[in-house]
Specification:
The chain has 2 domains: 19-30 and 93-220, HAD superfamily/HAD-like (Rossmann fold), CATH 3.40.50; 32-88. It is built from 10 helices and 8 strands. The chain has helices at 32-45, 54-58, 64-69, 77-88, 99-107, 120-129, 153-162, 176-185, 199-204, 217-220, and strands at 19-22, 29-30, 94-95, 111-116, 138-141, 169-173, 188-192, 209-211. The protein has a 6-stranded parallel sheet with strand order 5-4-1-6-7-8, with helices on both faces. It has a two-stranded antiparallel sheet with strand order 2-3. It is globular.
Length: 224
Amino acid sequence: MHIGICYDRWVLTRKPLRAVLFDWDGTLLNSFKADTNAYSQMFRSLGISWDPAALSQHYSPDWHNVYRAVNLPPESWGEADRLWRRFYAAERPLLQTGARRVVQTLAQRFTLGLVSGGSTLRVRSQIRALGLQPLFSVAIFGDRVPRRKPHPLQLQLAIGQLGFEPACCVYIGDAPEDVKMARRAGVAVVGVIEHSPVPEKLRASRPNALVNTIAELPKLFAQS
């Protein structure tokens, strides 16, 4: 049974859907403005001329790609990370519109997980502050694995901890790296367009389904 916008020979999941796993930044958390502000202040502190509009062009869950785009030498990446964390700490990004209701609704039917490229300290403190932590049965963060998205390890670890087959799971993300990671892990993937910093690249990555906002997810999964 095909649900949403499906491609190739995939259906949304090849077996009954058991687990829904989410990206965090940009998918559940409306964080792009906060990210941009932190990058702007960080690059200014490093004496680097940078147009914030470039973040959309070079955005990646692996922020080192942003550093490469401005020719920041690798020996400066540690200092850049420290500065970014310092400036981001002053930001207070909120959940995407409808995100809380979506997570609460889906948690009544499915096991939920979080697979984020962000750091354990930052993302865990955010989900706690926003009252979502009890709804996620597993959370795997970017600093807990040796390879970042689109490498599939994070998603594989999360699914392994849940004890499900990949064919029973779906991943929700807003970037092409999310799609690639899910594909490599054998997991169906839904792309969320509205707040994606790279919507055309997300479309071109051909997820199993595309939705404009996460508010559409309960309806998308209604027949699962």
